[in-house]
Amino acid sequence: MFLSTASLKKCDLSKVDLSSCIFVGDCSFESINIDAEDLNSFSAIGIEILKTIKIWDKEHWKNRKYIQSVTFPGVGEPIVNKMENGKVQPKSKNNIIIRMVYSGLIDFYEFAADKYDNQKGRGVFSRAHFVLSWLIDEKSSINNKLTTLPKYFISRWVAGYGDRPESPITAWLLSVALFAVLLGFSGIEIAEHTVTFFDQCSFNEVFTFYMKSLYFSVITATTVGYGDIGPSNGISMAPSPLNAIIGMFLYTTFTVVMVRRLFR
């Protein structure tokens, strides 16, 4: 269902599958009734339709880039004016349709986030704000995926757009597990002896050693530093401080997001 260039007055979107809705154009949402349960579903952003439109827009561009303008005299067929001398439209004109769709969805979720920005609707606001941030990142990355990837990787998967405390804690757990592997291969010092994965002979020994390496990774990431296990002299001295820096960054991010979520 496409809702476009209209004032949606007395429109009831409760119990409507928003995954099948796309908003295009200058829409006004002031009088619509939104089902909060639908907003809490990730499918509410019409993600399946977005995939279809992306494919269609990409295929359509193959012909559209050679068209300068289309005029309709009022009778007969529209007049298609081609670019001259084999020229093509600039790449900035590409993905126009999908950008319009993202803009319409962004307007809708801006309205939804504003409507539920209160103590009673805190959960719905959090969901709407998360999806809104997701849509803005997706729109900005259409033509610049490589340059925008680091930004929205951190904001989406690490910080959870400030609405997902589980995102930074999950990232923290993954980081300590990864550093445990790196430290296990580079070597850790236990009882004044350097030990690595290569010194283990069986699966049980590898597993036991990994748990010790994981323990060291956790106490490093939390900057506790009991001193019973340490990095060996050499290559393992490089990932250890990085483990501590990333661990404290993610722990602080989790604290900020959690407080923001609780006291919004």
Automatic annotation (TrEMBL):
Protein name: Potassium channel domain-containing protein
Provenance organism: Pseudoalteromonas agarivorans
Family annotation (InterPro entries): K_chnl_dom (IPR013099)
Keyword terms, alphabetized: Membrane, Transmembrane, Transmembrane helix
Highest taxon in the source lineage: Bacteria
Occurrences of domain Potassium channel (ranges): 204-263
TM ranges: 169-188, 242-263
Record bears the keyword Transmembrane helix: yes
